[in-house]
Amino acid sequence: MSSMSSVAGLSKYIRTLPKAKSSLLIIVVMSFILGSILFLLKPVSIGSILENLLYGGAFGFIVFGLPAIITGSTDQKWVYSLNGINLKAKHSMFLALVSMTIAGIVSILGTILGHFVDVDLFVNSILFGSVFAFAFNILVIWSTTRIKLFKSVIIAIIQPLLMIGMLIITSFLNNIETVFELGIIGTILKVITASIIFLLAIYSFIRVVESPMKKNLGFGVLEILSYFILHMNEGSDTIEDLFDNVGEAIDTIVGVASFRRLDGSIKALFISPCVHPGPLGDIGGSNMPTILADRFDAFTMVAHGPSTHDFNPVSRKEIVKIEEAVRKALDTMEYSGKASRFIRYSHKKANIGIQFFKNGTIMLSTFAPSGSDDIEYAVGLAAMIESQKEIGTENNILVDCHNSFNEEKGGVLPGNPELFQLLDTIKLINPLDLEHEIKVGCYHTDLGGFDKHQGIGESGLKTMVIEVNGQRTAYVLFDSNNMELGYRETIFNAVKDLDIDEIEVMTTDTHTVNTLSAGYNPVGTVEKEKIIDYVKLSIMEAIRDLEPVEAGTNTERILNLKTFGPNNSTELISTISSIVAVSKIIAPLTFIIAIIFVFIWIFLF
């Protein structure tokens, strides 16, 4: 698996948390259950099972539930009063719920252990659980809220202290046996010492994983994590400032095919920028296909040009440079009312569908049904230069159809066999004369409100049908990040009865859909039949929209586009990948050692 696959796989940890009221209800129920189980294991007095259940439930609510409700209600205010970020009401309440559950489960396990060793560990188990709750609180608050360590400790310690305080009160009121043999002050000191041990473990772990990224890129894991969460919660673009500081300016290419009506107005644009719509969510260029298309009044399809994560724009404002290049290409566009038919060529795994227009071509490249990911810019540039030499046309718009997802395959890079297969396919192309009139029809649908849960981005589905000399070719574009392997061929089979002769399906490679636990989330993994129904509908509607047009092609340079850059993109991905790999070793080792020391300190001293 590639480093990019490893990083993309982190999206499986993205979750939508329950509302604050839901967490509050769970706290009440869960605390009652935890207390009941504890008192079944360690009855306070000889009584019936029902009495122990009710008495224990009340104990659990007071010791575990009330502190969780108090901190769940106040942690958000504490965080924002200290200029922190990310901890909304639902996050605060859910954090309190998880911490309470951890404390309760640890308490139960400790009490069970006491039965096996014939020692009363009831109180010490609750203390041990409280320390665990502190450790989890400090890890979450420090790593996500942008608050300094000392201030994070103050917020994180509130819930455990309240738990211990409630335990002291209930102990004195109810005369629980063998309570606090060291005394109240000794018990509190024991808890503080144990908390410091966990704090040192967490501090050491964070510093180890922070240092590589801090050294290589100038910002640390906590920064990128907290600002990413802020982006997911509130749509903030603060994270783009981090990327902007380390970004690299590049020059790249955009290909434009324009179809204008006979009255001179533009009916449709087909754009293929060699810019990658990443990295994730709405960060950088992730929503570029929609943002760029919305800048033009005409029906606009923004396909995926040859590019990888190296060419991710560092911020959304960089997209205006792509728009400027497209408008410049339109200003010098030459049109003709003639075009060629659509024809396919293939060599080994490489497939190209090509159609000739004024001064250039649209070349749709794919390695389907074999799996593939992004075509690297250098590979695409080599293919475009080869096409100029072999075909003799100046403006060849190369599209990476991005329609055969295989997570294990990776992209098409210089030196890969697929590069030479692509070049060899271009050598097979025979130039065609522009002999026939053109008609174009378009249709756009949001697929009935489908969204990222179905692998569909904001632009939904766009279809353009080009009719030349009686041949109708459907250009079908999903606003998605790749397509499930084999789904392209399923679509082909499903539209055979429609009044078209050729079809190609493409995806924009938008990374707005990569914010679910589905990882890459390609289209075609769910709702397959419904999506195909919309494809059929879009083709039929585009056919109804057919009208005579003139067409032209042009390519233009995008100047000084600030992107992640070849160096920083590789550095970022490899650093994150290595941090994940190292953390799988260091995290268990660090925390197991800390747990052992805390266990010995609480139970044996």
From TrEMBL:
Bilayer-spanning residue ranges: 21-41, 53-72, 93-116, 122-142, 154-176, 182-206, 585-604
Positions in coiled-coil regions: none
Alphabetical UniProt keywords: Membrane, Transmembrane, Transmembrane helix
Domain DUF2070: 8-597
Superkingdom as given in the UniProt entry: Archaea
Name of the protein in question: Putative membrane protein
